[in-house]
């Protein structure tokens, strides 16, 4: 099944997020108590599979960064400079207040608009926001990400709600999101010239919620 876009992104996902609380609870959809588990799992993953002898990443991009929850507690300890992309102004305001300006630069681009330079990033992190793309948009975005990490042996990390195997995509008209299976996302990644390095499952996650996985990808 191919997931298409029915309405402009500004009218669905961005509009939805403008109306959500601009805090930890809002970012986690009411499950803010899961934040520490999510963040600890991501830090363990970075240390085990991404750093590979490096002390830190020089240039990092985070897309759909919200109020900077992941930026602060997952990426900053391992990054020299982070470009923080988030389309909702009120979320960016919170991030602007909490993140160090000498190490972070803030941009309003959506995933659809984001256009990085070639070979510009060592790590591109996309968490709980790729669900706001159609298949065409997702493929185009991953192609741009592939060109941005190619040549630097950089990584693209997609961490999101990800049912196992080849489950059908689930669209939600409330926020304009689509939850895609691991297989579906891997097909799009392969078509974009990215190969899977590791599928890192989030542990200790409530069974009533979608499983969460992090796909670590590199240019193939
Ligand atoms: C569930 S929150 C996750 C925020 C952050 N990644 C985290 O894990 O804490 C989803 C974020 O995606 C952003 N978003 C929604 N539509 C987007 C789009 N089309 N492009 C980029 N970001 C988008 C929202 O504004 C919101 O900040």
From TrEMBL:
Which positions are annotated as binding S-adenosyl-L-methionine?
A: 64, 69, 111-112, 127
Give the enzyme's EC designation: 2.1.1.244
Q: What class of enzyme is it?
A: transferase
Q: Name one GO biological process term.
A: methylation
Question: What cellular-component terms does GO give this entry?
Answer: cytoplasm
- Transferase listed as a keyword: yes
One GO MF annotation is: N-terminal protein N-methyltransferase activity
Note the SUPFAM superfamilies from the entry: S-adenosyl-L-methionine-dependent methyltransferases
State the reactions this protein catalyses: N-terminal L-prolyl-L-prolyl-L-lysyl-[protein] + 2 S-adenosyl-L-methionine = N-terminal N,N-dimethyl-L-prolyl-L-prolyl-L-lysyl-[protein] + 2 S-adenosyl-L-homocysteine + 2 H(+); N-terminal L-seryl-L-prolyl-L-lysyl-[protein] + 3 S-adenosyl-L-methionine = N-terminal N,N,N-trimethyl-L-seryl-L-prolyl-L-lysyl-[protein] + 3 S-adenosyl-L-homocysteine + 3 H(+); N-terminal L-alanyl-L-prolyl-L-lysyl-[protein] + 3 S-adenosyl-L-methionine = N-terminal N,N,N-trimethyl-L-alanyl-L-prolyl-L-lysyl-[protein] + 3 S-adenosyl-L-homocysteine + 3 H(+)
User: Would the keyword Transferase be found if you checked this record's keyword annotation?
Assistant: yes
Mind listing the UniProt keywords for this protein, alphabetically?
Methyltransferase, S-adenosyl-L-methionine, Transferase
The family assignment reads: Belongs to the methyltransferase superfamily. NTM1 family.
Q: Report the protein name in the record.
A: Alpha N-terminal protein methyltransferase 1
- Gene source species: Gregarina niphandrodes (Septate eugregarine)
